[in-house]
Design goal:
Pfam families: NIPSNAP. By secondary structure, this protein is α+β, with helices and mostly antiparallel strands. The chain is 40% helix and 30% strand. A hairpin with an 8-residue loop joins strand 2 and strand 3. The longest helix has 17 residues. The radius of gyration is 14 Å and the shape is globular.
Length: 108
């Protein structure tokens, strides 16, 4: 199991647009095959840092998931929405594997 952590730098004046973006991914991501942990928007502290987190079995599954997401109508629409509204200033994606044990029966 791998976990994708996406760190976003967002325009603090467009937080509502990011919230809509996150809600849309909340529908599209699970439908396309990833186990969505959630999207997290600024609440206190930094007003420009947000996160998206989801699990997949491996990188091959990630590639298949990305292809399905690209063909998903809401996925395409959400990507176009982010490009049009420009509320994401920067995006960083990392893939991590859990290192602590035990963890709800997941194999390392």
């Amino acid at each position: 199991m791998i976990t994708c952590f996406i760190r976003y730098e967002i325009d603090p004046y467009k937080k509502d647009a990011f919230m809509e973006y996150a809600r849309n991914w909340g529908q599209a991501i699970p439908r396309c095959g990833a186990d969505l942990v959630g999207y997290f928007a600024p609440h206190e502290g930094s007003v420009s840092t947000a996160y998206g987190i989801y699990h997949l079995p491996d990188l091959a599954s990630y590639e298949a998931y990305r292809a399905r997401l690209k063909d998903d109508p809401l996925g395409r629409e959400n990507y176009e929405f982010s490009q049009r509204e420009k509320f994401i200033l920067r995006e960083e994606r990392q893939f991590l594997k859990i290192a602590s044990t035990p963890h709800k029966g997941q194999d390392l």
